[in-house]
Amino acid sequence: MIAEIGHYALTLAFFVALAQTAVPLYGAARRDRALMAFAGPAASAQFLLIAISFGALTHAYLTSDFSVANVAENSHSLKPLLYKISGVWGNHEGSMLFWVLILALFGFAVAAFGSQLPDSLKARVISIQGMIGLAFLAFILLTSNPFERLDPAPLDGRDLNPLLQDPGLAFHPPMLYVGYVGFSLAFSFAMAALIEGKVDPAWARWVRPWTLGAWTFLTAGITLGSWWAYYELGWGGWWFWDPVENASFMPWLAGTALLHSAIVVEKRDALKAWTILLAIVTFSLSLMGTFLVRSGILTSVHAFAVDPERGLFILGILIVAVGGSLTLFAVRAPALKASGLFAPVSREGGLVLNNLILSVATATVFIGTLYPLFLDAMTGDKVSVGAPFFNATFVPVMIPLLVLLALGPLLPWKRGNLRVAVEKLWVSALFTVVVAGGILVLSDEAPLAPVLGFGFAAWVAGGVVTELAERIRLFRIPVGESLRRLVKLPGAAYGMSLAHIGIAIFICGATGETNWTRELVVVAKPGDSMTLGQYELVLDDLSRIQGPNYYSDTATLSVTKNGEPFAVLDPERRLYPVQQMPTTEAAIRSGIAGDLYVAIGEGNAADGIIVRVWVKPLVPWIWAGAMIMVLGGLFSLSDRRLRVGAPKRSAKRPGGPAVAEGAD
Amino acid sequence: MSRVLYLLPLLIFAVIAGYFTIPILTKKDPRLLPSVLIDKPAPGHDLPALLQDKPGLGPEDLKGEVKLVNFFASWCGPCRAEHPILMRLAAEGAVPLVGINYKDRPEAAIGWLRELGDPFGRIGVDADGRAAIDWGVYGVPETYLVDAAGHIRHRHVGPLTGKALNDTILPMVEQLRAGKG
Fold this sequence. Notes:
The structure holds 2 protein chains of 2 kinds.
Chain A: H1 2-30, H2 33-36, H3 39-62, H4 69-74, H5 81-86, H6 92-113, H7 119-143, H8 167-196, H9 201-232, H10 243-268, H11 272-295, H12 301-306, H13 308-332, H14 347-379, H15 387-407, H16 418-424, H17 426-442, H18 448-471, H19 479-488, H20 491-516, E1 518-524, E2 529-532, E3 535-546, E4 551-561, E5 564-569, E6 572-576, E7 581-585, E8 587-591, E9 594-604, E10 608-617, H21 619-638, H22 646-651, H23 657-660
Antiparallel strand pairs in A: 1-10, 2-3, 3-4, 4-5, 4-6, 6-7, 8-9, 9-10
Chain B: H1 2-25, E1 67-72, H2 77-92, E2 97-102, H3 106-116, E3 122-126, H4 130-135, E4 142-146, E5 152-157, H5 162-177
Parallel strand pairs in B: 1-2, 2-3
Antiparallel strand pairs in B: 1-4, 4-5
């Protein structure tokens, strides 16, 4: 019964979306206030209905109602509560439902918090948001109904893929989806602006917080996914460059470019058409990320063939959404006039360069991910593009961006002097030379990659500190006065510094892990000991444990470091009988200097088991750096000037000190 | 001129969308078939051995018994994910495994097998990916079920799962062995 309510609510939501799309759009064209005002209640109703539907599916999972096909295929009565909940979005149908839920939530947020928006803009944004919802509600209802019943109902379910039964992965998809779907608002605002034929700083002030919020969630989601891969897949890697990861990375790169170009629109009233285009591209890549990966076209063309109806539907949505928006762009964007002029060497110029590099990087990942499909379609040749391609292309593309990252924020708006900016960076340059030199002396083999990696990290970090010092006029005014300035810096200034320093920390982690990892693989029996670097490990015991829905072979290893007791680690190998799938649960001892990572492989006590030990220097810095970037996003969001509804307030005092000092 | 510039994103998108859509709409897409080689003889290649103490793969080696041929590479993440399943298959002796190491550095591949275990009875090296093209490999990992006559009977794209093995591949192996396939 409850499942039927969910299905009914979803069907109703479809018709509400239809009205939400048509009525406000028509009203805005006719300048009819009553029709435009329809947008708000429609968006609220839409959200409420989808929330009811999502609640119904969650209920089916919590009560293990196996008469619902989706639950029977993806859940099991013995599964722990957390994974019953995460199971709701851990499958195709449920994740689509979650997607439209977030979409409706954002539409609702515009309705609830958008009282300061011009009526026609608000109506059009909500209408476009409804249009996206319409397409995906149709997709769910016609091809992916999560409420389909099974008769007779099976006694128990088929369980969730055990690799996905993990706290890190339970929260990874929601984060990612909030990020993906968050860009839908940037898209809706872009479409509405094209229809209105007007893009101005107030528009950019509206778009920025939403984009920033989406970017922050996407960053957190990708980080969580990478961390999960690191500890769950049991081989110590943290980024594979596989199509699924790339699909989330492309919108991230484009979204990062969008964040920066929106600043130029806001502060300088320039780069309008480009920003609109980026908003379209970012959301298009998000769509591709969610749906093409889900449909399986990227990882295995089979899923597409197995269910051509779904694949074609998604392709149809993509073509209409992207093709339609780009057509609108081609027709309306030439009319957008920029008022702010700037010289090539200026803050704007730096941000343009930032955008160019990020776009090239996005294109690189795009080509690497889709090239096998293109080649196949054109010639029938099959190739696989793996990590070697991306390491050889993506990394060199990003290097100029790192050089620019220290320089750009030191350039003034409108017209800058390159020599003045470069001269400010002498401390940073000195720091870079010292760090790179130190690494050169310390490392005994193949020092080029670590010297470059840590050198660029030092350069970026030096640049961030220099920029902060400039901002608070350190050593040029009394130190107390500087500190006072530091405390009073706007949130966005902290946000930028944190995000940029996060990049430096991330580079350190990635460089250390890639170049300095040491590993040991042995076959050991209980009582055997092994040595790697400063660590000595003794395999004490091997035992079999029964978990709630799995068996586990657990090894107990006591570890000493330089002769001192250091840790007791218990890596596991689990077998989930329902899905007949083994998983590795690595034991990791993390510290600021790096990780000691132990995983066990095949074997038994009599013949010995395979024990794999890694020492991975600086690896936690990878996620620490990424989380600091997330923190940067949150700080920027906390900035009063970026807050939703702020446009009118700050417009009253455009020349005020807070604006002049703003972080950009 | 500037109008053309604004049209450019749409044109680029049209080209990309065309490449995806046209093959599907005209149903000419070979990818929509499980493999064009199903029930045809597996391509015969002479692939050199990866390891000193384990044979490579000659054109005749694919005949004689039912076996799984697995394309793998040390740089491929999903291959890592599927490896425990291959190890389990080998430990249970369910079906002989033949490995083809795809576009890899030999030392990386050897280290990889040493680290994760080696489930294969034979390993051939396909350094330039030419054999993979003839097999119709879309991307690693990919696994083929080859019967005693050396014909490809099933193709699995992506990492093997317990479900695919139990529901499809192992029953097919039994069938082929019983001579009913």
